[in-house]
Amino acid sequence: MHSEQIVKQYLNELKLQISDILNIDQEKFFKKQAGQSELILISRNVGKINKRNTEQQRTIVVTSENLYNIDKKSIKRKIQIQKIFGVTVSRSSFEFILHVPSETDYHYKSQENRDIILYYLSIVLKLNNKDGLKIYLVDQEDLQQFCLHQKTSDLQKQMVLHPKSKLLFLYPHDFQLQYINMQNQPTKSLNINHKITVLFVNDKLKFRVKLEDFSKNAIINQGSLTKLFLLSLKTDRQKVLVLKTIRSSDIDVDLMEFFLKNYEIEPFNEQLELCIRQTDLIHFFFKFVKGGDLFAHLQNIGTFTENQAKYIIAQVGMALQSIHEKGITYGDLKPENILIDEQGYIQLTDFGYGKLRVYQEYKKQQNINFSVEYASPEYLKFGDLTRMSDWYSMGILLYELLVGISPFYHLNTEIAIKLICQGELHFPKGTTITNECKDLISKLLQQDSSTRIGFSNDFKEIQAHPWFQEIEWIELKQKKKELPYIPNIIEGTLIQEQYIKLEQLCDDERGWY
């Protein structure tokens, strides 16, 4: 038995909550038979299939100690968690069987609730020190042949009904991805090129993922390695995502998978919803941001006011801080890689995810596609890319937001590199920029990275600069501040044409295979 605190703490580690959506915990008939220490984890309606293959409405309740089969307000069966041997799951339908060797099996069906019930069952088994949730995965739609409806003392008679397929073990910490990928295993009739492996799902309660679920609608932008596609979910056209696909040969897959396992949503970083590997391709699905990128806004208005730029830079700084705290150098800061949502809040994009730069101070890094205008002197001279290179790029960004052009811009790339390495900073006459702002830009653009602001204490040192004195950092991070720059978003319109330009797809770009 486990205390409520232990159960809730474990759910919190898995980033889950108790899911008693039918409020069974409040029912008197349940309280009479449940133990005082028993805690409901999940309650869901399902269809129970009897031996005559007739479906009946039932409720399954999984608690910290038992599984209940309920008919309306009557508990028909109470099974101790330890007595559950495992489950048989159909890949072709939504049927499943609970195998209980010392009693009778239970044959159920539920399109909406099967997978989440099994997930929570794996959690309770773990809490009761069982060796994972045992699963037989079969292709048959009808599972009647695998179910023992009558109690027998002959355990061998029951076990012989179990499928001849391999018995798999699933554990709560990686249940979702293992379960999804089990469902996606190619059958003998399916071409191996169609095989996909799901590497990441942001929604903890999503258990079915297929590329065919999504439609490619248009090209939304051209990235450094690939085109960006606007997608919609076939079953819900209002669910819109952005797709970026890159070849696995172009990235460090091990580093990418490490990042995905430790992925956390950050307030100012682009939100990854899904990542799928398809043979030699990696598909990234991102949340769609209506305001487009900062470059489009800069082109649209020319320059930002100093107050507008201050709040943009403050958010960029916090985004870079969260990246640096994970031991990563962002390495490609520029207006094209900064998205703006409807409220004016920014999101950094184009991490590459496979070209993540795990930084060591002054260690040379390879294969970085830095935009020359935003490249730091130490990178151009020596190939050194560290977190200080990010702060240099932020100084270039601040200058460009206020002036409309980067300080060392030149059409000739070789001359631009020479200007950056010389580092002679000038502010154009007629541009109103406060002394505090000029001082911060100058300190961010120091040639020697060891004297650049941020070297001693990263963004905390930059936050303390007088130019940021009025910023309420907690309020800004929680997105409770009404910002001085808000995109002109037309309500009810998905694509804002002044910020986002769509290109039509050719026939070859519409498919997945």
The CATH first-level class of the largest domain comes to: Mainly Alpha
- CATH architecture heading of the largest domain: Orthogonal Bundle
- Based on CA atoms alone, the radius of gyration comes out at 28 Å
CATH superfamily annotation of the largest domain: Transferase(Phosphotransferase) domain 1
Structural class: alpha+beta
Tally of discrete structural domains: 3
Please give the count of helices. Answer: 15
Uncertain runs: 353-368
Percent helix range: 25-40%
Strand content: 15-25%
Q: Give the integer mean of the pLDDT values.
A: 89
Polypeptide structure, described:
The protein has helices at residues 4-13, 28-33, 114-127, 155-159, 175-183, 253-261, 294-301, 306-324, 377-382, 387-403, 413-422, 435-444, 458-463, 473-477, 507-510; strands at residues 19-20, 40-49, 55-63, 66-71, 74-80, 86-90, 95-99, 106-109, 133-138, 167-170, 196-201, 214-222, 227-233, 236-247, 272-278, 281-287, 328-329, 338-340, 346-348, 357-358. Helix 8 (306-324) runs antiparallel to helix 10 (387-403) and helix 10 packs antiparallel against helix 12. It has three domains: 4-183, PH-domain like (Roll); 192-289 and 505-510, Phosphorylase Kinase, domain 1 (2-Layer Sandwich), CATH 3.30.200; 294-477, Transferase(Phosphotransferase) domain 1 (Transferase(Phosphotransferase), domain 1). Helix content is 27%, strand content 23%. Strands 1, 2, 3, 4, 5, 6, 7, 8, 9 and 10 form a ten-stranded mixed β-sheet that branches. Strands 11-15-16-14-13-12 form a six-stranded antiparallel β-sheet. Strands 17-20 form a two-stranded antiparallel sheet. It is built from 15 helices and 20 strands. With 513 residues, the protein is an alpha+beta fold. The model is unreliable at 353-368 (pLDDT under 50).
